[in-house]
Amino acid sequence: xxxxxxxxxxxxxxxxxxxxxxxxxxxxxxxxxxxxxxxxxxxxxxxxxxxxxxxxxxxxxxxxxxxxxxxxxxxxxxxxxxxxxxxxxxxxxxxxxxxxxxxxxxxxxxxxxxxxxxxxxxxxxxxxxxxxxxxxxxxxxxxxxxxxxxxxxxxxxxxxxxxxxxxxxxxxxxxxxxxxxxxxxxxxxxxxxxxxxxxxxxxxxxxxxxxxxxxxxxxxxxxxxxxxxxxxxxxxxxxxxxxxxxxxxxxxxxxxxxxxxxxxxxxxxxxxxxxxxxxxxxxxxxxxxxxxxxxxxxxxxxxxxxxxxxxxxxxxxxxxxxxxxxxxxxxxxxxxxxxxxxxxxxxxxxxxxxxxxxxxxxxxxxxxxxxxxxxxx
Amino acid sequence: xxxxxxxxxxxxxxxxxxxxxxxxxxxxxxxxxxxxxxxxxxxxxxxxxxxxxxxxxxxxxxxxxxxxxxxxxxxxxxxxxxxxxxxxxxxxxxxxxxxxxxxxxxxxxxxxxxxxxxxxxxxxxxxxxxxxxxxxxxxxxxxxxxxxxxxxxxxxxxxxxxxxxxxxxxxxxxxxxxxxxxxxxxxxxxxxxxxxxxxxxxxxxxxxxxxxxxxxxxxxxxxxxxxxxxxxxxxxxxxxxxxxxxxxxxxxxxxxxxxxxxxxxx
Lengths: 377, 266
Prior knowledge:
Largest sheet of chain A: 6 strands, mixed
Oligomer: heterodimer
Order of helices and strands of chain B: HEEHHHHHHHHHHH
Radius of gyration of chain B: 23 Å
Number of strands of chain B: 2
Strand content of chain A: 25-35%
Order of helices and strands of chain A: EEEHEEEHHHHEHEHEEHHEEEEEEEEEEH
Helix content of chain A: 10-25%
Radius of gyration of chain A: 24 Å
């Protein structure tokens, strides 16, 4: 089946930069599908959308719409539209005329354009604000109008560039809900770039972009349970990492010998990944025991950091366990740690790094720390 | 609300002073324009009448006003689009080294019109450029700093990404400028046009020196009446005739702008 949008081997480098912003990116979006490109700031997400939209030209590679290259087609004639992080409503036009803008460009009459625009405004639940000027809207209303305007453009593919990142949590949630309703009603093909995992979770598939490369293109569930690389695991967050080696499908480390799921295709030096919510705290007679060193609040949960006894004193290992609110454990208490079965474990190749300190710099807070690695995991 | 109440009397006083400042210099002109006889030692005219207006009509004030208007329009037509382009480039930092173009564009304000006009006079005569065209071109250069820097300030307040947004909604680069950023810059555009028009409308030195006295505009008539005749009624009438059209235009523009603001807030 021909993809609605195919970004084929896209490489792009900004003038003056040594490293490419995008390196050999390959992404396909099927008709009616929504995909997300997830990445940290500066990973090249926005550049990728700008290349797709024709606002920047790649050094190499191709942009195909329904199998046809549009690399030499200017942005206005590509069958794509973009909703940017800022709503960019046209200040001299009313809300209704902003939404009717694309139709007016297509030479539809003012009456027809406005009638169509009104339907899209109704869809985003702002039907009674058509006569207002953009400056009279709140931030959330502006983004709704921008969404209505992008939908009214009736393009083959909609590209959303972190469109809700400037909104507060409640508004963002309501926009996510609205996007779901719009998808149910119109079934548009959407590419959304974001650094927000919840937002990425709205999409059928997620491409993880790290330093200009797609590290994994999979479902959000797969990113949480079976990240392909350490970079993906760290971007997703919430993993305990422990270094060791894999032989015959078994990971050997200070945690012991743990059987990995059959699909984890790893050999040799490898990092075991265990999600903190898959670990449990049990009586101190469990197979893994240790001493609580920290209890901290994490959203609606608490994270308990346990220093394990099993490792020798010079190779202390810590695990982070997510528990419900109200734990009575305090630093210094002894506890047992319940490890999950093979379905709760995962392993990735240990990245070969000449200077081990580079790993620890590149990561956020470790969930397991093994002092022998000097880095994460 | 409390701020408004507390500052209301001070605002009223400031407004009254501003009106006073504008009206006082015009009062003798208005009185002279309605006077038939007013000897220097008396506080008010002894006789009122329309002598000054009749003499102004006889002197060709209508034709002079039309010429001034045409000159203003011609200057605005040239200096405004150039100012829009230059202001866009400077305001949106499209130039790598904007310092030199900024200085060049500001130079006409620094240079004395008399000095420039006297220098160019000879050149234009030698090149055989018709006086009217030469006057329009030179005045356009003098108007360019006003249009450029007004539009620069306007574009500074306008997000350049609006054009990209328009592009991805189906507008060509030209349509994006014509249908989005230019209309969004209407207030600045009107101000720039008005300033360029006024440069042409009110010019005396360039019209006199480069036009060689052949182009009789309203300021030329005023200058001639004030310098030569000693007829204060005629001079005042001509001055008021030349001041009224821009004042009316300003009032209409201000009223229209306030109506737009009111409509936008309702």
